Amino acid sequence: MSETDLSGPPPSMTPNPNPGPTPPPTPSGQPQGGFDFNYPTIVSLLYLSSFLLGITSLVGLVLAYVWKGEAGRDPWEASHYQYLINTFWIGLAGSIIGFLTLILVVGAFILLGTMALVVVRCVLSLIRAQKREPMPNPGTWLA
Predict the structure, then answer these.
(1) What is the helix, strand, coil percentage profile of the chain, to 5?
(2) What is the tens place of the pLDDT at every residue in 117-128?
(3) Residue 81 predicted with pLDDT over 70
(4) HEC secondary structure over 11-68
């Protein structure tokens, strides 16, 4: 049996006398190299998950309206909420028109186009939300 030295902290807990350069500070609120789950990102992910789960787009819409109405949010978030609210209504209108015209061949193309537009709009919002940048034209009905 060996004797353990209990006179001080173990070597792994002693401070390094030469720690090297410190990393530069990041702006407040920015993630340190990770994925930022800010509110517009959550709404976009809910919209995208609705292609598999269905109902999550309604949850995203309700959250977008609630968070849009809250005071004290970052200014860049307001443009994302308007953009994402428009995205929901574009998707709903395109889906209704697509299903009504599905008996015709054109309905399938309308559904595919609507799905592509919703995905593109959600991805654009995700990219800008990760950078904490506002959407350039949140009232547009195109991408």
Answers:
(1) 60, 0, 40
(2) 999 999 999 999
(3) yes
(4) HHHCCCCCCCCCCCCCCCCCCCCCCCCCHHHHHHHHHHHHHHHCCHHHHHHHHHHHHH
